[in-house]
Automatic annotation (TrEMBL):
Any one GO molecular function term: 2-oxopent-4-enoate hydratase activity
The name this protein goes by in its record: Fumarylacetoacetate (FAA) hydrolase family protein
InterPro entries attached to this UniProt entry: Fumarylacetoacetase-like_C, Fumarylacetoacetase_C_sf, Hydratase-Decarb/MhpD_sf
Limits of the Fumarylacetoacetase-like C-terminal domain: 71-221
GO cellular component terms attached to this protein's record: cytoplasm
Keyword tags: Hydrolase, Lyase
Top-level division of the source organism's lineage: Bacteria
Length: 247
């Protein structure tokens, strides 16, 4: 019997939450274009409850890739999370924005800026519900909410950081040891433009951007987390975000 998209989406959700690992992606469900990717994402969201935010790549070429993120995958700074249960494999340091008001389709850049209440350091934990993630087609992994496992959100940063975002020095530390650092990333204008595009895209999928949602804007520094218990994303004098892993 052919597995439905909805049934397979439920298995992906379970695999991210300590349930049985998924051996393979059904051949007839592997997406071949973005509409197929987003259909899988929508089916997953139908199983997880409300959307808590989105991930979108700011500053790239062409139309951004994006994904909604379930509200139950957001954690506060310093919170303890079971890496074993949620099958985390990578940690990524990102700049996030939190919406203070709803943002409708067709919003202009000035409206986007007005809707953004605060800027935050964030850590995305990449998760894998698969037995062997390396054997899974990249389009399929994009359908799996772009491999999102969790997002840890740090305290709000001073808005003056906007001027430094393009050359912001960030470092990722695992149990106190630096694993990766960089000093390049999307500038404020690129982040605003990505959120502006996202407002129309999200609305077209029946998932409009809403007040309180947190949007992460692309990995700046990332590394396999291995068995690190303390993962820190440091943005120098601006602030940092911390996640504590249990195994």
């Amino acid at each position: 019997m052919t597995e439905t998209l909805q049934d397979f989406a439920a298995r992906l959700v379970a695999g991210h939450d300590g349930g049985p690992l998924v051996e393979s992606f059904p051949v007839d469900l592997v997406p071949t274009d973005r509409s197929g990717i987003y259909a899988i994402q929508d089916a997953i969201i139908a199983h997880t409850g409300p959307v808590g935010g989105w991930k979108v790549m700011a500053g790239g070429q062409g139309e951004p890739m994006c994904s909604p993120i379930p509200a139950n995958r957001y954690y506060v700074d310093g919170e303890s999370i079971s890496s074993t249960q949620h099958r985390f494999v990578l940690a990524e340091i990102e700049v996030a924005v939190k919406l203070g008001s709803d943002l409708p389709a067709g919003a202009e850049a000035a409206e986007v800026e007005a809707a953004i209440a605060s800027i935050h350091p964030a850590m995305e934990m990449v998760g894998s519900p698969f037995v062997d993630r390396d054997k899974i087609d990249s389009m399929a992994k994009n359908g799996d909410l772009q491999s999102n496992g969790a997002v840890v959100v740090g305290s709000a940063l001073d808005n003056a950081i906007k001027a430094d975002l393009a050359t912001l020095k960030v470092s990722l530390r695992l149990d106190g040891v630096e694993a990766k650092s960089t000093d390049t990333g999307a500038d404020w204008a690129a982040i605003v433009e990505a959120v502006r595009w996202l407002a129309s895209h999200a609305a077209s999928r029946g998932l409009p951007l809403q007040a309180g949602q947190v949007i992460i804007t692309g990995a700046r520094a990332l590394a396999p987390q291995a068995t690190a218990h303390l993962i820190e994303g440091d943005m120098g004098a601006w602030g940092k975000v911390t996640a504590r892993m249990t195994y």
